[in-house]
């Protein structure tokens, strides 16, 4: 079975791109478990646990990332540089367990996948 990497590079709120990527990933998870998620740039904000999108009249779609744990999909990777630039650290609380990778390892990990989709 082919593997798919989903790359998120946009913040979770302010546009629907993150929610749309999540919807596509949920659809893929029905037919394959070889899925991983990569977060770079503002995409690292997708998995912040303590968000309050109600202040901007938005829905907290990022909580839906938890469902992948039920499907035993556990590949969630942060670009370490992007996370650090936004004040995030490995010991912060995230919606799902996240592995921080330096830029080189981040790219090498992505190269292992047959398909790469960016949101």
Mind explaining what this structure looks like?
Belongs to the DsrF/TusC family. It comes from Buchnera aphidicola. InterPro entries: DsrEFH-like, Sulphur_relay_DsrE/F-like, Sulphur_relay_TusC/DsrF. Helix content is 26%, strand content 18%. The chain is an alpha/beta fold and 119 residues long. The chain has a single domain (4-118), classed as 3-Layer(aba) Sandwich (Hypothetical Protein Ychn, Chain: A). The radius of gyration is 13 Å and the shape is globular.
Helical content stands at 25-40%
CATH superfamily: DsrEFH-like
Quick one: overall form? globular
Structural class, by secondary structure, is alpha/beta
Task: Report the portion of residues in β strands.
Answer: 15-25%
The CA-CA distance between the termini, in Å, is 23 Å
Q: So what's the CATH class?
A: Alpha Beta
Order of helices and strands: EHEHEHEHE
> How many helices in DSSP terms?
4
Instruction: Determine Rg (CA atoms, Å).
Output: 13 Å
Largest sheet descriptor? 5 strands, parallel
Instruction: Tell me which CATH architecture applies here.
Output: 3-Layer(aba) Sandwich
State mean pLDDT (0 to 100 scale).
87
Uncertain spans, ≥5 residues at pLDDT below 50? none
- How many domains? The number is 1
Query: How many individual β-strands?
Result: 5
Q: Determine the CATH topology.
A: Hypothetical Protein Ychn, Chain: A
